[in-house]
Design brief:
two-stranded antiparallel ribbon; Trna Endonuclease, Chain: A, domain 1; 6 strands; 4-stranded mixed sheet; 12% strand; alpha/beta
Length: 239
């Protein structure tokens, strides 16, 4: 093994570490009437600890350093990939904003939000119907299930907000709603009665696509603010 360190170096290190960590010599009692074998074994292990202490420490530090380097490289690659994906989504978002067919733009927004949620590994689900209700999507964040509503026609009014809250509140009691309304909400839409949803607008979407904040950080801050203050609509600039 020592002649082929290119193959067996890792195995030798594991063997050295295992032996130097060895403290139980009870298996020698059967053959060791006078205790001499146990004594020699303990001395041998202690000598090995003395001879290899510095080498093992240096080698372990090198291995840890290599692991950190690999993890850092993976992080760089992942961040580059994330930035590339966000840039592509930003192009899609800008194209959608110029669309004249509002119904088609609404469908495209649902697909866009699905891909954005997928990028952040939030287990998105596409639109579906539930007992006659149209749900634009769903996802899971930090163990909580969210229902998604996407609007891009005009500002959302109080009636639309109430309808979405009803959809959320008639589901499992721990569900939360995320309303994405690109044009925001009307001034009279928000009331203290709405406590089951949080709202995201165009400023939030642009901040995410520009890399100023991650989708997950924004969701966390919005929900925490809603819990602390009761304010369900604070965009990125106001948080």
């Amino acid at each position: 093994m020592t002649n082929r360190l290119d193959i067996y170096k890792a195995d030798l290190m594991h063997l050295l570490i295992a032996v130097t960590d060895f403290n139980n010599f009870s298996n020698l009692k059967y053959w060791d009437d006078d205790g001499s074998k146990t004594k020699k074994a303990k001395e041998a292990v202690n000598n090995l600890r003395t001879y290899t202490k510095g080498y093992i420490q240096i080698t372990q530090e090198q291995e840890e350093g290599q692991k950190r380097k690999v993890e850092a490289e993976k992080k760089i690659i992942k961040n580059k990939s994330l930035n590339d994906e966000l840039a592509a989504l930003k192009v899609r978002f800008n194209l959608m904003s110029t669309a004249k067919d509002l119904q088609k733009r609404g469908f495209e927004l649902e697909k866009f939000l699905y891909d954005l949620l997928l990028l952040y590994e939030l287990e998105p689900k596409g639109s579906f119907k539930n007992y006659g209700e149209q749900i634009d999507g769903a996802f899971t964040f930090q163990g909580t299930d969210y229902l998604l509503e996407a609007k891009w026609k005009k500002q959302v009014d109080r009636g639309e907000l109430a309808t979405f809250c009803y959809k959320v509140e008639t589901k499992f009691k721990t569900a939360v709603g995320l309303l994405v309304t690109i044009d925001g909400v009307t001034s009279e839409a928000i009331t203290p009665d709405f406590k089951s949803i949080i709202i995201m607008d165009a400023f939030d979407i642009i901040a995410i696509l520009d890399g100023r904040i991650s989708l997950t950080d924004l969701l966390f801050k919005k929900r925490r603010k809603a819990i602390e203050t009761g304010k369900i609509y604070l965009n990125y600039r106001q948080l």
